[in-house]
Amino acid sequence: MGGGQKDYPTLIEDAGGRNESVLILDQTRLPSEAVMLRLVSLEDAAHAIRVMQVRGAPLIGATAAYGVALGLADDAGDTRLNHVIDTLAATRPTAVNLHWALARMRRVLQESALAARRDAAWNEARAIATEDKAANAAIGQHGLSLLQARQQGSRPINVMTHCNAGRLATVDNGTAISPVYAAHAAGLPVHVWVSETRPRNQGLLTAWELREAGVPHTLIADNAAGLLMMQGKVDLVIVGADRIAANGDTANKVGTYLKALAAKAHGVPFYVAAPLSTIDFACSSGDRIPIEERAAEELGAGDTPVANPAFDVTPAALIDGIISERGIVRPGTLEQWNA
Ligand SMILES: CSC[C@H]1O[C@H](OP(=O)(O)O)[C@H](O)[C@@H]1O
C-alpha cells in the first residue's frame, strides 16, 4: 500500500456507513496541503472529476460510481438514473474506467427493483472501489518480478515513470507505482525517476506519495528523460494508462509517447500497468481513443494561442508488456483477458 493512505485516503465512504457521503483527498491542493473534501451530491462528484480534485483513471471510475449513488439519493427512477449517468459521463472523455464504471452501475441498477436501487448503487460503488484496491495490489505483485529480474546487489533498480499512476490515481496501491511499493516492501533497493509532467505537474503528486512512503526518488523535468536513458540510468519505464485499445495501443498522460520513443531508442524496457477496467475491448486501436483537450489556462500562456491535449497514444509496438491483475502479457495478446 502506498504511503499516507491511513491519513489521506484518495476516496473513502462516510465513516458511519450511512450511505450519505464520501470523502475525497483534494488533489488540486497537493502537494502543499492534504485536504479532505466531502461529496454529498451528483454535482459534487461531477465537479471533483471535472476539475481534477480526484484524477487518475481508476479513481475517476470509482468516484463516478459513488457519484451515481449520491445522485440517486432522492429519486432512483430511470429518468434520474439516465441524467446522473449522462452528467458524470460528460466530465472527462479519455479514461475508459469512468465509462466502464457507469456502464456497470447502469447494468446493475436497471436490474434492481426501484426501491432497492439506492442501496444497490452504494453496494456496487463499494464493490468497484474494493476491486480496484485488490487489482492494483495484484499489479504490484506481477510487476515485482520485473524489478527483481533487474536487481544487481545493492545497486538501486532505477524505474522511470510519468505523471502520477501511484496510489493517488487509484482507490489504493496505484498501478505503475504498485510494483515499486511491492519492491520497497520486499526490501529491494529501488529508486524512481519522477517526471514532473507539464502542464498539471502530476509528477509532484508522485513525489509527494513516494516521500510519504519513504521510497527514494528524484524529480526531473519531463525533457530530461531522454538524456537519463541515453546515460544508462534507467533500468525500465513503467507508466499508467487511461485507455488501452484492444490492439494494445495505450492512451496515457501527454508525454508518455515521447518516453516510449526514447526507451525504444536506448533499449530500455517500457511497460504499461493498468487494471482490466482500463482496457477498452470495444476500441480497436489507439487512433479511436478520444483525447481530452483541456483549458488553455492550464498552460498559463496569457493571450498566446494554446493546444493542451491531456493525453497521447503510445503504439503497441513501443510497449514491451502490459501489467494487469491477471499478469504480464505482450500488448498484441490482450484478447486473452477479454472475458
Ligand atoms: C492509474 S491511471 C493514471 C493516469 O491518469 C492520469 O491522468 P489525469 O491525471 O489527467 O487523470 C495520467 O494519465 C496517469 O497515467
Written overview of the protein:
The structure is a single chain. This protein has 2 domains: 5-131, Four Helix Bundle (Hemerythrin (Met), subunit A); 141-337, Translation initiation factor eif-2b, domain 2 (Rossmann fold, 3-Layer(aba) Sandwich). It is α/β, with parallel strands linked by helices and 339 residues long. The radius of gyration is 19 Å and the shape is globular. The strands form 3 sheets. It has a 7-stranded mixed β-sheet, with helices on both faces. Strands 11-8-9-12 form a 4-stranded mixed β-sheet, with helices on one face. A 3-stranded antiparallel β-sheet has the order 1-2-3, covered by helices on one side. 35% of the residues lie in helices and 16% in strands. The structure holds the ligand CSC[C@H]1O[C@H](OP(=O)(O)O)[C@H](O)[C@@H]1O. The ligand CSC[C@H]1O[C@H](OP(=O)(O)O)[C@H](O)[C@@H]1O binds next to helix 2 and strand 9.
Chain-wise SSE layout:
Blueprint: E1 11-13, E2 22-25, E3 36-39, H1 42-50, H2 57-71, H3 78-89, H4 96-110, H5 117-148, E4 157-162, H6 178-185, E5 190-195, H7 203-213, E6 217-220, H8 225-230, E7 236-239, E8 243-245, E9 250-253, H9 256-265, E10 270-273, E11 279-280, E12 311-314, E13 321-324, E14 327-329
Parallel strand pairs: 4-5, 4-7, 5-6, 7-10, 8-11, 10-13
Antiparallel strand pairs: 1-2, 2-3, 8-9, 9-12, 13-14
The structure holds the ligand CSC[C@H]1O[C@H](OP(=O)(O)O)[C@H](O)[C@@H]1O.
